[in-house]
Amino acid sequence: MNWPKLTSDSINKKITEALNRNVNYRKAPILGIPATYLDSEVFYEDAPFLEDAPFLKTLIANPNHIGCHTLSGSEKIFKGTQEIEIELIRLCAEQIFEGAPEEQDGYVASGGTEANIQALWMYRNYFIEEFNAGINEIAVVYSTDSHYSLHKGTDLLNLTPIVLKVDEQTREIILSDLSSQIDESLKNGIRYFIINMNCSTTMFGSVDDIVKVTELLNEKNIVYKLHVDAAFGGFIYSFSKVNSVYTFKNLNITSITIDGHKMLQTPYGTGIFLVRKGFMKYVKNTKAQYVPGADHTLCGSRSGANAVAVWMILHTHGSDGWRSKIRSLIDLTTDVCCKLNALGIRFFRNPDINIIAINAEDISKEVAEKYFLVPDSYEHKPKWWKIVVMPHISRGVIDEFINELKSMNKKACNVNL
Ligand SMILES: Cc1ncc(COP(=O)(O)O)c(C=O)c1O
Questions:
Q1: Domain spans of the chain?
Q2: The sheet that has 347-348: what strands, in order across it?
Q3: Segment 216-219 long-range contacts (CB within 8 Å, at least 24 positions apart)
Q4: What is the pLDDT along the chain (417 residues), one digit of tens a residue?
Q5: Which class in CATH covers the domain with range 76-317?
Q6: Which of 18, 138, 225, 260 could make an SS bond with 270 (beta carbons 3.0 to 4.6 A apart)?
Q7: Residue 270 CB–ligand 1 contact under 6 Å
């Protein structure tokens, strides 16, 4: 993994040049495109600060990145910024997830939800086209700790959900449950499986044991395609885990969701969908006749500024800078865990992720709410409250939180006496 850290001047130059390769609504005789620059009363192009603000400059130029640019052919007038998106997809697929050069496709989606649904949609069509599968023969397999977008996608696409149990303490998928649910569903007519593996889950930061799961699936000799939901962990785990098995080198993996707008601090609208070449064709929309190269994405029109934002952030840090930023957050998370241990407070934490899920029996609702901890359920009595150690969290706030927990423990001791 090695990409350069660039100065803000060279980033500005690169994005400005990309914008110059786009056709400018203000200068070119563009008569047929149902789009234009942003409202110039509000977003005026000659604001002096724009000179040094490539992301804002791109927002105002308003390129539409409709379609999938790593495939051949796209809207020519936004060629410059589309090239930035292609570079970004290649960086994520090849540098971060170790894919072979130019062997992956992808696009910047609205978020993790869209990227996950894109995967389910693509595999559903793949099984229908390649195996003549009936809709009732396709199931989506995911753990109960998976993000709700998996439920959403399964529902929208009319597929059969198979929800796997996890161990209450380790949050690991219970393999005997996976095995018996697969056997049962085969008896009930399911013949094709879309498997989702989490790297990591939203609530716990747990990372599914993809090696054990795929060993079992391969032993059973079932027909499956595997997607990785790394919406949360994508920009963390690949940097914190030595020899991650969540890469394109793992031949069991066909596609990966990552999200810039979580850890990477990019603007909302920066989910990323990555997939091995040869699969996007299953979602080609041949009715999109007015779009050069057709459309292969769930969302349709989308802002090219989002790809520019992710590209800029990755190049502002460089791979070494990003790794060291993640290291600091992981270390800070470990510090919090040590303090919780010292207080005898129970929690779940994967050592390579910056999430701590605290056992709700060990912390008062008042303290949890005061520090905006997120419960596993707003509808039922919470079993867990989670902390996500993000860049805005200072050691001072952590100390304050720990001190409150200490005094809460003291009060509990006094009551027991
Ligand atoms: C693991 C995981 N997958 C998918 C998503 C959905 O992402 P978005 O809200 O960007 O659609 C989230 C959001 O928290 C997530 O944590």
A1: 76-317, 320-416
A2: 347-348, 355-359, 384-388, 374-375
A3: 216/175, 216/178, 216/179, 217/182, 217/193, 217/252, 218/252
A4: 889 999 999 999 999 999 999 999 988 888 777 788 988 888 888 888 888 899 999 999 999 999 999 997 777 899 999 999 999 999 999 999 999 999 999 999 999 999 999 999 999 999 999 999 999 999 999 999 999 999 999 999 999 999 999 999 999 999 999 999 999 999 999 999 999 999 999 999 999 999 999 999 999 999 999 999 999 999 999 999 999 999 999 999 999 999 999 999 999 999 999 999 999 999 999 887 777 888 999 999 999 999 999 999 999 999 999 999 999 999 999 999 999 999 999 999 999 999 999 999 999 999 999 999 999 999 999 999 999 999 999 999 999 999 999 988 766 555 444
A5: alpha beta
A6: 260
A7: no
CB 231 near ligand 1, within 6 Å: yes
> H-helix or E-strand containing 223?
strand 223-230
- Whether the CB of 232 sits within 6 Å of ligand 1: yes
Q: Is 389 left (phi over 0), alpha (psi -120 to 50) or beta?
A: beta
CATH placement of domain 320-416: 3.90.1150.10
For Cα atoms 98, 100, 104, give the angle at the middle one, nearest 5 degrees: 95
pTM: 0.95
From the list 59, 68, 111, 60, the residue with the least C-alpha distance to 86 is 68
Instruction: Supply 61's token pair.
Output: 């130029």
